[in-house]
């Protein structure tokens, strides 16, 4: 509902409750000049709007209505509904805070993953560049590659493979298993 320009009917009472932070009690909707609802099927006969306040923050409005009869809500009823609405508002505020906390945790995990991937990529770039340079140098030579040339390529490939193995062991740690141990 647009608070600055509410539609006709019960919405006016709802906006009044939200704006003033006070309970709005309308015992007979059809005869109340504030809402001027008139007779319409499915419209409440009596209604009470109670602000949802959590630590003085306006969360919304709780509507308590009777479709069948007009009625005055006693001070005890109003106090009980106000207490209930405060509990609802606190719960909604906590849910919102939990959602924000979970979103922050997910973004922190994503940032940590990105940092890990960036580190692995930078570590792998050196051995892979060396492998490429050595292979290009060997391809440019007319004579056959020597054993030392092949050992260099093999060493760099093994280095790149070790980096990936450490990454996989970090991502999937080995599970400990029970085994017999001779203590003597």
Q: What profile does the largest beta sheet have? A: 3 strands, antiparallel
The total of beta strands comes to: 3
Radius of gyration: 36 Å
Continuous helix count = 3
Q: Numbering strands along the chain, what is their spatial order in the largest sheet?
A: 1-2-3
Provide the structure class.
mainly alpha
Describe this structure in words.
Strands 1-2-3 form a three-stranded antiparallel sheet. It is built from three helices and three strands. Helix 2 runs antiparallel to helix 3 (147-171). The chain has 184 residues and is mostly helical. Helices cover 55% and strands 12% of the residues.
Give structural attributes.
single chain; 184 residues; three-stranded antiparallel beta sheet
Compile the SSE list and pairings.
Layout: H1 10-20, E1 24-26, E2 46-54, E3 57-66, H2 75-140, H3 147-171
